[in-house]
Amino acid sequence: MSRTYDVLAIGNAIVDVIARCEEDFLHRQQIVKGAMNLIDEDRAESIYGAMGPATVISGGSAANTAVAAASFGARSAFIGKVKADPVGDLFAHDIVASGVAFGTTPATEGKATARSFILVTPDGERSMNTFLGACQDLTEADIDPATVEAATVTYLEGYLWDPPAAKIAFRKAAEIAHAAGREVAITLSDSFCVDRYRAEFRQLIVSGTVDLVFANEHELKALYETADFDTALAALRHEAKRAAVTRSEKGSVIIEGATTVEAPAFPIEKLEDATGAGDAYAAGFLFGYTTGLGYDKAGRLGSLAASHVIQKIGARPAQSLKELAQQNGLI
Amino acid sequence: MSRTYDVLAIGNAIVDVIARCEEDFLHRQQIVKGAMNLIDEDRAESIYGAMGPATVISGGSAANTAVAAASFGARSAFIGKVKADPVGDLFAHDIVASGVAFGTTPATEGKATARSFILVTPDGERSMNTFLGACQDLTEADIDPATVEAATVTYLEGYLWDPPAAKIAFRKAAEIAHAAGREVAITLSDSFCVDRYRAEFRQLIVSGTVDLVFANEHELKALYETADFDTALAALRHEAKRAAVTRSEKGSVIIEGATTVEAPAFPIEKLEDATGAGDAYAAGFLFGYTTGLGYDKAGRLGSLAASHVIQKIGARPAQSLKELAQQNGLI
Question: For chains A and B, what is the number of CB pairs under 8 angstroms?
Fold first, then answer.
């Protein structure tokens, strides 16, 4: 193969339509705050009609991670399904313009490119309403073996369990990666996503289908159905090869067997839009991990990226994360 | 008529596609810095292909003014032409969601909705590359007499001279407004636009087709072909009924006959994206002017709105300008 990637991300290819709203808008629209709510086309139209003026920025959890990893200087690739429509063109333009290799063939039939209508409340929290559209058409045929074999880590989002065919693609990618001596990572994505697929996620971890687990505190507690963080962390330590657990302003905890590394959070001036905090953390961590910087630096790089993206609108970086890491003495 | 508007804005209906770039990108692409460059569809594709990841936000000069005026609490309407396509839907959604009355029938045939590819250099300056598309289809048939008659001020952008049929629509709107005892305002839009249409713009002013002129320092000097600001201002004072001239960090000068009012600029922390500074100034001024607050307050409201929009990405306000004006003791 002509190129080796540090990170290959596989996920839902989504364009974000972001608007500010007051708390009562969420109540009136029956939107679960802070969650990723799955919606159909009719509901998408109804929410869009009711929401305020919007900013449109390419998103998608794993895609955000691929872009932020590239911004750190990682060699980065993405697999995900758009339709050949104007929104799909936007997604493809942005990910390629961000320096990420992206060659998934767009669907020419079927549903439109996925959109997530993201409502940002005055506290900076984001509530997502996602119409999966063309993401439903990601199948194992889209998993190019040469790309997976060329990647140090193949990173998969838990949200892939929502479009039914994608989980088969997920398992195929994991098999190819392991057969080539590569590693597989997963993010648990969202505590409601964990509620939907708890048994399957635990099976992926216990069976060693994934080598590295990303989760936030809420997702971890949901996975082990406990309100106690330490209990959940102990369970994860027992079941997972290694994991990075984010705790908002408390930073992150990286565990591997008996090893525990705690990395602090970066201070922020103002939480503008929480969209993409976890995606950015994973990018910084994966950049540090795949380039051999160790868990402490990897965790700090993750925290730095997260602190950057939540101080602006949209989940993708607005400046070079490589320069930001250099300015902060991390690389 | 059932409703009276403070401001009716008529202009090109454009969606902005905004990306950051380095200075040398402008040189390589032969883009005139700080200007509005008119481009065709091929060039649009070529610039989009070369530019970085983008943020998509509704724009259009007069449309931005209508939205910002509404944000101050003005009763605001807009006339402009989109096509019935996804980009046109975005434009229509955003302007209506911003509280602006908008009823122009979208074109069902012809060119796509207008897009402006805006490159923001590290100094915060923006260089626009505009594909006019469906704006070419704005004709006098789109000027609804009842809407014009219902508006205290009909505000027209100089850019309307670029799509050939629109200048006829412009003149029709001015005639209807004056016949109803209303006023007409124009913004000169851009110094290159002034170079293209100098004789016609001066004729509009001298003939009294417009009652109020908005210009920045560069546009004013271009209008009277002089490098000396005071010479240009004296000429404008002689020819125009009244005018508001913006001077960036020096604030603005409002003139009417022998009267001169100078309004200071608001300090800014960081110039993020200069897009829409003039549009926002016009909105604040028109809100103050149409609600009888006097030239000093009108000028300060204009400066306040401009300082807000240039400290963020995109030309439209990110918070209530009414609240911002209240916080600053202006209303």
Answer: 59
